Amino acid sequence: LQYGDYACIHPYRGEARPMIWIPRIDYPYDSKVLFERCRREDGGYEVCASNIVADPNYSKNRIDCWGCNEIDDAANGILNGKSPSYWISVRSNIHMTRMVRG
Questions:
Q1: N or C: where does the chain have the smaller number of CB atoms within 10 Å of the terminal CB?
Q2: Residue 26: in which H helix or E strand, if any?
Q3: For residue 78, is it within any domain?
Q4: What digits encode the pLDDT tens for the residues 19-45?
């Protein structure tokens, strides 16, 4: 990790206000980020994870880390987190692991 690498997290937070969020999972590659969004009533995080795992690039670029295990679990119906902040931690774990193992 280098100075200025925010681990895929925006460094500035906007003002706090109530909002309706749509489940989203991001999968960071070396030079791009794949993301999936799906409304809760249409399957939410499980569908997002299934779509990421179904992408042919996922299996080619998957790394062994907690974040990837969480995506795999969600794709198999085992949902360990149901909030945006949880899935931000998944994304950050994948990004940091990828950077450290470089």
A1: C
A2: strand 24-28
A3: yes
A4: 688 999 999 998 889 999 999 988 999
| Domain, as residue range, for 56 | 42-95
What is the pTM for the complete model shown? Answer: 0.84
Q: Is residue 7 part of a domain?
A: no
33 phi and psi, to 5 degrees? Answer: -130, 125
Q: Does residue 37 fall inside a structural domain?
A: no
Is residue 36 within 8 A of residue 91, CB to CB? The reply is no
Report if residue 34 sits inside a domain.
no
DSSP alpha helix (H) spans, the chain: 44-54, 56-61, 66-75, 84-101
For residue 37, the one-letter residue type is R
Judge residue 64's burial from the number of C-beta atoms within 10 Å of its C-beta, 0-12 exposed, 13-18 middle, 19 or more buried: exposed
